[in-house]
Design brief:
104 residues; mainly alpha; 5 helices; globular
Amino acid sequence: MGDSSSLSSPSSPASYIHLVHRLIEECILFNMNKEECMDALSKHARIQPIVTSTVWKGLEKENPGFFDAYAKQRRETTVTTTSREANIRRLQELISDDPAKLKL
């Protein structure tokens, strides 16, 4: 994974799903919802939104308690647009600064 274009073409489907899973975890750390995560990964990692959505739904199915608590926390916490934009920029920097950090 030498450049950001390789993010969209990993060596195997399993490694691609694992990569998307890890990036979704980063989105969650940045307090993004599914739609924000889909948008960020589409824009900054060239991951198709349907892929992000499918992996996110799989994670929700595997971890319903976590996602229920996460949704509740998001509802209870007001995050300003500026903070969300800063989070998206931080995620973009993580992806674009050193794609080698994302190696599996």
